[in-house]
UniProtKB/TrEMBL annotation:
SUPFAM superfamilies: ClpP/crotonase (SSF52096). It holds the Pfam family ECH_1. Signal peptide: none annotated. This is Enoyl-CoA hydratase-related protein. Belongs to the enoyl-CoA hydratase/isomerase family. The lineage of its organism: Bacteria, Pseudomonadati, Pseudomonadota, Gammaproteobacteria, Salinisphaerales.
């Protein structure tokens, strides 16, 4: 698999896992225009690669992501020309978050240091979130005179309306353990070794699941609450039937009967 060459991201592939590191350490990996664009492109790349079963996102130099790049915001505010560049810039965040959320691959976020603003949003779209206990989470936008415009819907979907409202209007700051209590992250680990061990365990669990079944399951769950239930259940039944007859379904059933690992888990 030929990996793309990005300006703000470093990529590595290993046994069905694509590791993406946000790599602007001088800005605590704050998202500039280039990073938002490249993360959006990364979602498409991961979605198109059948070999990619998990996408791990983390940040360089001990920070996940400190939010949006304030310097970029200032430049856009001063930009001349037609249209609304500030709205276009902001909307790009939502496009990126949606694209990553909808990838076929399981998205795993490893959260250390600053997890603020846009980084908070990235945590909210992950399928599995693993935090260091000393990670610093927050929605600082309102303290800058801005709303967390594109992030807010994903925060509500992740932790529920009442907690999201509290964090939104208080500019909430909290650590990894509070993030776990809120349901923002699934695991909170006490040190780097435990964080690495939890990531290895999670990736092992993902590798034991059938890739296409995982992708279908994720897509079905993302539709819940956005569509009428009965048509969704009808569609789910059709997909179940297709999976039963698929090579993946046949292999999974055979492996169970023969008391062995299926081919995708070996």
């Amino acid at each position: 698999m030929q990996l793309p060459d990005y300006e703000t991201l470093t990529l590595a592939a290993d046994n069905g896992v694509l590791h993406a590191t946000l790599n602007c350490p001088e800005a605590r990996n704050a998202m500039n225009v280039a990073m938002v664009r490249e993360l959006t492109e990364l979602a498409g790349f991961a979605n198109d690669q059948a070999a990619v079963r998990a996408l791990v996102i983390r940040g360089a130099a001990g920070n996940f992501c400190a939010g949006g790049d304030i310097k970029d915001m200032a430049r856009i505010r001063q930009a001349d020309g037609s249209g609304d560049p500030a709205a276009d810039y902001n909307r790009g965040f939502g496009t990126m978050l949606t694209a990553l959320s909808r990838t076929r691959a399981a998205v795993v976020a490893v959260l250390e240091g600053a997890v603020l603003g846009g980084g908070f949003g990235l945590a909210c779209i992950s399928d599995v979130a693993i935090a260091h206990k000393d990670a610093k989470f927050g929605l600082p936008e309102t303290g800058l005179g801005l709303p967390p415009a594109q992030i807010a819907p994903f925060v509500v979907a992740r932790i529920g309306l009442t907690q999201a409202r509290r964090l939104g209007v208080c500019g909430g700051r909290f650590d990894g353990e509070e993030a776990r209590r809120l349901g923002l992250v699934h695991f909170c680990e006490p040190d780097d070794a435990a964080l690495a061990s939890r990531l290895d365990e999670t990736l092992g669990q993902i590798r034991r699941c059938a890739p296409n079944a995982n992708a279908i399951t994720k897509a079905l769950m993302l539709r819940v609450g956005n569509e009428e239930l009965e048509p969704l259940l009808d569609d789910a039944a059709r997909q179940f039937s297709e999976c039963v007859r698929s090579d993946e379904g046949k292999e999974g059933t055979a492996a169970f009967i023969e008391k062995r690992l299926p081919g995708w888990a070996e």
